Amino acid sequence: MLLRILTSFLYSQFFLILSLPVSAQGFGDGSAGDIELSGVVNQATYLLQNAHRCDDTIYVKNSNDFKAGDLLLIMQMQGALIKGENDSSYGELIDMNHAGHYELAQVKSTGLQFIEIEYALVQAYAADAHTQVIRVAQYRNINVMGDITCSPWNGHTGGVLVLNAKNDINLQADINVMSKGYRGGKHHTAPHFFDIRYDYVAESPDPAYFGRKGEGIAGFGIDSMTSARGAPANGAGGANIHTSGGGGGANFGNGGDAGWGYPVDNSGGEKTIFGMGGHALDYYAMYDLVFMGGGGGAGHEHFGNGSSGARGGGIVMIFASSLHANGHTINANGGSAGSSGAFGDGAGGAGAAGSVMLHLDTLINSLTVELNGGRGGNTIGDGFGPGGGGAGGYLLLNTNLPDVINFNGGDHGLAGGHFYGGTKGQTGGFIQDTFSIPFNQQFHRVYADFSIDPAHLLSNQEAVPLALLLNFMNDSRGGTDAYWLFGDGDYSIIDNPTHEYPTLGDYTVSLYESNLMCSDSIFWTLKPNIELPNIFTPNDDGFNEVFPGIPLNNLVLLEIRSRWGELLFSGSPPNYNWDGTYNGEKMPSGVYQYILILNDESGNDYVINGNVTLAR
């Protein structure tokens, strides 16, 4: 009978994240055939639990739209860490923290709120960073017959359009994800009173003092600190009291700062309370990532006439052998903010343009790519800050350049038709280079597991084993390389090794199993194969009268102690069985502690502790 060892699911950190190179054509087998598309083309859900590198199961809100054989795009939309100090450094990026990670995976099976994938994940994804899971159909050829788009980003899903064809995509209409990206800060009405606040971040999101920030890769800010003028990463800052404007969202470039507040040229304080533009994302350092455009910040209002920040543009990802554009357009522009009302108040900032990724062999027939930032909102005049302009977006491609690429920064708003603070968003940009889509089609998750053949363990009733000669059987799945540590300083790289322990002792056996991408490990502690009775009954019936009552070769000493540690019995061969008495008196029923001292062939002592119940 085999002694089964359960898997511990502990991961090694020795292996690099793998992004397998693939050709520039679309992905999958084309099993969905040829299709004519229009409208919203992707279905999506989102993670309920964190997914780790080398996992092969993800847990999602709804798995109903997915089936075996489907392709998935897994994309973490947020999670970046930013500075949170209430000064001009607020919102600067500390760590991407997996924001922007994405990869393709193929579905093996589905169940209630989970999806099992064929091969292990290449990267890690956080559920609380709003990782969405998008179904990517495996078309052979696609004809886009009417304008296509994606659902707007709602905080869990949306904002991303993915087209995938094994062969060709033919545009007979446009692709439009304008204003489908990160959300703008929402304006809030508050009582009218005069004050000036200079905070970059507000501990209390009181709309009387602070407008809401725009959304980006760090959400709307840190925890509940989602108001005031500081910009959270590529999201824009909200406006401060009194009636200043919201900043513009960022992407490839910085978002534009907003216009000034009130009073007009009196103390000068009105010129330092505007919502700040979002921080540009460094695509040269992370060029193969794409992000939605940052949302604009909200204007500050007292009269119920302010405006919200606008949405950023969404993401378009196209995988195909060739894209026949036929003079059509991909539009990922940022949204423009609305003007504030006739009674004044600050206006919202514009959204930044989103991103376009073209993973193709060939681009054919005059494509236009629009990645322009939106325009900041206008106000009625001085004292009411207009919104900042949105930044231009990002184009990543591995093929020839489109005929027309526009990625202008959006204009700032105006106050009564003229300048009153505020700046334009900066221009966007593109990177033309070879890049690979992370898609693991080779390495499985590793499950480490092993069992032990106990044929060489002597019977408990015969003798204490003095030498353990054990056969170890590697029952792992998904691995190609084994590394054993036997706990006595020896090791092996054989899949199914035999190992001999020359002396008694506790030995922790470790198995590390891996392939070129994933690993797993399991640990098990071996102990001498001795099982003593856990109860004895010294009641003069001639049965089970003494403890332990079985032969124990190599015994040095047996001690029995009370629950308080009082020594009641000490015996050595041949007189080592306790009859349940102390100084000739019968001890009451109860639990007593035993200590066995054994001696191995090398003369080393080995101690075993345990409890035995005396029952009369």
Would you kindly provide a written description of the structure presented here, covering whatever features stand out?
- This protein has strands at 3-4, 33-40, 44-46, 57-59, 71-76, 81-82, 93-95, 102-111, 114-117, 131-136, 139-149, 160-164, 168-171, 175-176, 315-324, 329-331, 355-364, 368-370, 394-397, 404-406, 429-432, 450-453, 468-474, 481-485, 491-492, 498-501, 507-514, 519-526, 535-536, 555-561, 567-571, 581-582, 585-586, 590-599, 605-614.
- The protein has no helices and 35 strands.
- It starts with a strand and ends with a strand.
- The chain is mostly beta strands and 616 residues long.
- It is elongated, with a radius of gyration of 35 Å.
- Residues 1-23 and 455-467 have low confidence and may be disordered.
- It has 3 domains: 35-439, no CATH class; 450-454 and 465-526, Immunoglobulin-like (Sandwich), CATH 2.60.40; 535-614, Immunoglobulin-like.
- Strands 2, 11, 12, 13, 15, 17, 19 and 21 form an 8-stranded parallel β-sheet that branches.
